[in-house]
Every structure is written in C-alpha cells, then in structure tokens.
Amino acid sequence: MVKVVGIMGSPRVGGNTDRMVRWVLDAAQEAGAQVACIVLKDRRIGHCFGCDVCHQPPHRCFNQDDMEAVQPVLEDAHAFVLGTPVYWWGPSGHMKSFVDRWYGFQGDRHGTLRGKRFGLVLPMADSDPSTGRHVVGMFSDALDYLGCKLHEAVLAPGCGAPGDVEGKPEVQAQCVALGRWLCQAPTSPRR
Questions:
Q1: Radius of gyration (Cα) for the chain, nearest Å?
Q2: Three-state SS at 111
Q3: What is the pLDDT of residue 190?
Q4: What structural domains does the chain harbor?
Q5: Mean pLDDT in the chain?
Q6: Which of 2, 19, 111, 156, by CA, is between 20 and 30 Å from 165?
Q7: Dihedral over alpha carbons 49, 55, 56, 61 (to 10 degrees)
Q8: What is the pLDDT of residue 189?
Q9: More confident residue, 115 or 133
Q10: Residue among 91, 74, 79 nearest 137 (CA)
Q11: What's the rounded Cα separation, in Å, for the pair 117 and 104?
C-alpha cells in the first residue's frame, strides 16, 4: 500500500496550513493510500550545527532528538505533502529546522528521500502569489539535490487569518488533485 506522509510546519494547528495538508491527505486516503501526519511543532527537532557528525560512522546526528523517530517514517513513506505558511518570504522556523536536518541525507545510503514524490502547500497572508517564490524555490532545489522532485506547489494567497482558506474552493480542488497524484507513487519505497 502506498504511504503518504504530511509534514505540517505551521505552529497553528487547525489553521490554513493544517487544513490544506489535511485536504491532500484526505484525498490520498480516499484514493487508497495509508496516510500519516507529522506536526512539527509537537516534535523536538534541533537545529543543524553543520558539524558533519552525520557523515561519519555511525551516521547519527549530534542532536539526540525526535528526528531519530521521524527518519524511519520518512524512509518508509512513498510520497509527502509539505505544508508551511510563508513567513517573511521563507518557511516557518519549524519547517526550516526540519529541512536543515536533511543535510544528513546527502549521499544517504538508505535513500531516505531519494526518488520519492513531493507536493507543497503554501498559504500566505499576502495577496501576491509571487511572495511564495523563495519557499517554492528552496524546496525545489533542495529536493532536486537529494534526487527527488517537487511535483506541485499549491499556493493560497490572501490567507492570513485562521480559516481564510475555507473560502477558496479552487485551492481545495488543487489540494485534492495533489493528494490523488501523490497516492500513485510506486508501491515500495526506493532504497
């Protein structure tokens, strides 16, 4: 069975980012995927120190934190939806710390993320969708570097207050389509 994991990077559970991630996961589940969601604000994931300990045997991070429990979930999944609000033209602090820890996945012999499918959902208060361009570019480049591809970024401009995204049926439709696409991932993770 295809496994799709949501990574919810907003500190506001029940807000726009959370709702968009849930729309994607609900659609994937309805299409037959097994789904799970990791809420980053509920995890203790420390900052990357750039110390390179993760690149030396036994290939474990200097930080002894919740990333150790999250990595096997990432390895086991086939596809992901990453969700973050746009904060000052970048991702949330929770999401940025999580992504910085991908540093340990470079040259990863286990293929933690290599070859897996990714979608991105991005609500933002600004009404100009180009405000999300740096976040989309960051994820696109980082995933490409790790041997993955960002399939689609669903942008939701003008969604600053909790619940604003509920008034955007076109955004919900894009999230549903993304969820259906993600569940078409290969039936076994690439290792």
A1: 16
A2: coil
A3: 46
A4: 3-182 (3.40.50.360)
A5: 91
A6: 2
A7: 50
A8: 47
A9: 133
A10: 91
A11: 19
Q: What is the largest CA-CA distance in the chain?
A: 51
**Looking up tokens 């180009």, which residue turns up?**
130
| Interval 92-116 mean pLDDT | 83
Distances (CA, A) of 176 to 93, 133, 134, 185: 26, 22, 24, 15
pLDDT at residue 38, as a whole number: 97
Between CA 101 and CA 57 the distance in angstroms is 17
User: Please, are residues 29 and 180 in contact by the beta-carbon 8 Å criterion?
Assistant: no
What pairs with residue 149 in β-bridges? 117
Say whether pLDDT at 41 is over 90: yes
State how far the alpha carbon of 182 is from the alpha carbons of 109, 146, 149, in Å: 24, 18, 12
Pairwise CA distance, residues 191 & 10, whole Å:
29
Q: How far apart are CA 88 and CA 93, in angstroms?
A: 11
CA gap 93, 170 in Å, rounded: 28
> What is the pTM for the complete model shown?
0.92
**Count of CB atoms within 10 A of residue 12's CB?**
13
CB-CB contact of 6 with 80 (8 Å): yes
- Can you tell me the distance from the alpha carbon of 181 to that of 164, in angstroms, rounded to the nearest whole number? 25
Residue 141 neighbours by CB under 8 Å, 6+ apart: none
Tokens standing for residue 102: 């991908």
